[in-house]
Specification:
By secondary structure, this protein is mainly β. The protein has a single domain, classed as Jelly Rolls (Sandwich). It is about 10% helix and about 40% strand. It has three helices and 18 strands. The chain has a six-stranded antiparallel β-sheet. The chain is globular and about 50 Å long.
């Protein structure tokens, strides 16, 4: 990762980076941007939900990062709930790799806070074929395999700061989750924990497979003992499968 000592989380959830780190102004997702994927219909306003910093890197690594064709992003998801539903990303699917039947994969790493990664596969009718929820905490890495859409939930009481590695140029598809008003299950607050509530906009139902990040295997040994950022800089050839 770009270690936590190289940035700090400001009271509003934005990041303040140290000198020597190249970063853009964040894209901000607000409540009004998430209205079509929420558990309940609520009045929509400019309340920020999460901040996305795309293509973050040390200045000294700029040429290597550009040559790799892989982007390192940092996202901050604020804590809290919306009518009992934990704050989440709006969710998306990835496009197919050229000449392939598989979509682009992605790697995540929790830098601080807690995360619940929702991975969902579509069936032939656009409904749900599989639903996996992965619990992760600081230091954990979660691989999003090809052909899964995904949503990230912050079930904690502090900002969730996470990094990701992804192919640098493709455009995500937000349509499938928007059409169904979210994933196959919503994640709601429940007596200090959380619970899954079925999304009735799906015509079929599959069980929730709940896993911990530490139980999952990785498609490359490059991330063992390394942060995602270190893997990208030290062994970029081992991450070619992301492209």
């Amino acid at each position: 990762m770009i270690p936590n000592r190289h940035f700090r989380v400001l009271p509003d959830g934005r990041l303040e980076f140290n000198e020597g780190i190249i970063h853009p102004e964040p894209d901000v997702r607000r409540l009004k941007d998430a209205g079509n994927v929420l558990y309940k219909e609520v009045p929509l306003d400019d309340r920020p939900l999460y901040y996305m910093y795309r293509d973050v890197h040390f200045a000294k690594d700029a040429d290597m990062i550009k040559k790799s064709g892989i982007r390192y992003d940092i996202t901050v998801i604020l804590p809290g709930t919306i009518e009992g539903e934990f704050i989440k990303t709006v969710g998306h699917f990835h496009p197919l790799k050229p000449g392939s039947n598989d979509t682009y994969p992605e790697y995540y790493e929790v830098l601080s806070g807690r995360a619940l990664y929702l991975l969902q596969k579509k069936d032939a009718n656009g409904d749900v074929a599989e639903f996996i929820a992965v619990e992760a905490q600081a230091g954990d890495k979660v691989f999003i395999p090809p052909n899964y859409g995904h949503i990230t939930v912050n079930p904690g009481t502090e900002p969730l700061v996470m990094a990701n590695l992804i192919e640098a140029t493709f455009k995500s598809d937000y349509g499938p989750f928007a059409e169904k008003r979210g994933a196959a299950y919503y994640v709601l607050q429940d007596n200090g924990s959380y619970k899954f509530v079925r999304n009735q906009n799906y015509r079929n139902q599959v069980p929730v497979t709940l896993r911990k990040a530490t139980e999952l295997s990785h498609p490359t040994p490059a991330v063992e003992g390394r942060t995602l950022y270190e893997a990208l800089i030290e062994v970029p050839e081992e991450l070619e499968f992301l492209k």
